[in-house]
Design brief:
The complex is a heterodimer of chains A (132) and B (215).
Chain A: H1 8-11, E1 27-32, E2 36-41, E3 46-50, E4 54-59, E5 66-72, E6 75-80, E7 85-88, E8 91-93, E9 99-101, E10 105-110, E11 117-121, E12 126-131
Antiparallel strand pairs in A: 1-2, 2-3, 3-4, 5-6, 6-7, 7-10, 8-9, 11-12
Chain B: E1 2-8, E2 15-19, E3 37-38, E4 45-50, E5 54-59, E6 64-69, E7 85-91, E8 100-105, E9 109-114, E10 119-123, E11 140-141, E12 152-157, E13 161-166, E14 171-175, E15 188-193, H1 195-204
Antiparallel strand pairs in B: 2-3, 4-5, 5-6, 6-7, 8-9, 9-10, 10-11, 12-13, 13-14, 14-15
């Protein structure tokens, strides 16, 4: 077998991403971070891809309308219309010291019913949420 | 598929931070790093940006604060040291009283954009967009002529380079590690138009709405 040779020209040249699952649809929004990408199509479908998550665009596993999409380092997520954060491939620890760390989806539920997340994201090693 | 519900209290009007570094949370002694915690004393934050080991934010009155690792002058607080850190957010002074609207934190440098469309930078000398500055730990105005006097509308500080989009749909890049930008084979310490992006935009008659760069 021939060795796989990837030159700088291939790595750092624009290339079209695999679009079989959303062929013909326009991308209307995207968010990216150090290792991950999440995007929304014109029909409100959400896909994600990136290192350590998926190597081609994959539907985000949520049947709710997204108010906001976001990416943090190697993770992606959605703030849904119900105000909850649906997070994929992130580590979080709650007040009861429960550690969530795997490639599955989990919800970060806000106890404060009056709050609204207006921005969320982060690159490299830091994450943030800005709350209204 | 769903593994667990994490409970948290997201305080209204506040910035919460978490992550895998001991730098840049802005909330010392406030809980576990992987538990979102509130940055105290700020309830009027308009926008936030995180870098590799520092973060910054702009408040509603256009004040700019940074926190985290200060190496290379990336905090812009005039307190550069080889291994210093700032545990609490510190305010940055803009000598010409610029009205800052957004911030972008990179790996070792930071950019700020003013309402007039001017770009300020500070941090590692090779990332500034200006050659030969005396102090790199305070905001430096990148001369508007560097962008052909066009108003800059969006900025991004990546790992060791920067990107800026002007109102006239021109994408400028500068810094080092520019080989990470498509087909860019030379480095430029001052802003230059990205030829590959220019060609793509021209070919498709496209308007750049949004971009992202990290390196």
């Amino acid at each position: 077998m021939n060795p796989l040779i990837i030159s700088d020209n291939i790595l750092f040249t624009f290339s079209k991403i695999y679009d079989e699952l959303f062929k013909g649809e326009k991308i209307v929004d995207f968010e990216a971070s150090s290792n991950s990408l999440i995007f929304r199509t014109e029909t409100d479908k959400i896909f994600y891809t990136g290192m350590f998550v998926k190597y081609q665009p994959t539907p985000f596993p949520l049947n709710k309308k997204a108010k906001k999409i976001f990416a943090t380092e190697s993770s992606v997520g959605v703030v849904a219309e119900d105000g909850k954060i649906y997070y994929l491939n992130e580590k979080l620890i709650d007040d009861s010291d429960f550690v969530c760390k795997d490639k599955r989806l989990f919800i970060c539920e806000d106890d404060n019913l009056n709050s609204e997340i207006i921005d969320i994201g982060g690159s490299y090693h830091l994450r943030y949420a800005l709350v209204k | 598929m769903l593994s667990k519900v994490i409970k948290n209290t997201f305080a209204t009007g506040h910035l919460l931070t978490w992550g895998q570094t001991t730098y840049g949370w802005g909330r010392p002694n406030n809980g576990h790093p992987w538990t979102p915690g509130t940055v105290a004393n700020f309830n009027d934050i308009e926008s936030v940006s995180t870098g590799q080991y520092h973060l910054g934010f702009v408040t509603k009155d256009h004040s700019v604060y940074t926190v985290g690792l200060s190496d290379n002058g990336r905090l812009g607080q005039g307190n550069y040291s080889q291994s210093g850190t700032s545990a609490l957010p510190g305010k940055i002074s803009f000598g010409d009283s610029a009205s800052i609207t957004s911030l972008s934190c990179g790996s070792r440098h930071t950019l700020a954009l003013s309402s007039a469309g001017n770009v300020y930078s500070w941090g590692h000398p090779n990332t500034l967009g200006v050659i030969g500055v005396a102090k790199n730990d305070i905001p430096i105005l990148i001369p508007p002529e560097s962008f052909q006097n066009q108003k800059v509308v969006r900025i991004q500080a990546a790992r060791d380079f920067s990107v800026a989009l002007t109102e006239q749909n021109k994408l400028y890049v500068w810094g080092y590690g520019l080989s990470r930008i498509p087909k860019w084979e030379q480095q430029s310490l001052t802003p230059v138009i990205s030829s590959e992006v220019e060609q793509l935009v021209h070919k498709r008659h496209a308007k750049i709405k949004k971009f992202f760069a990290i390196g």
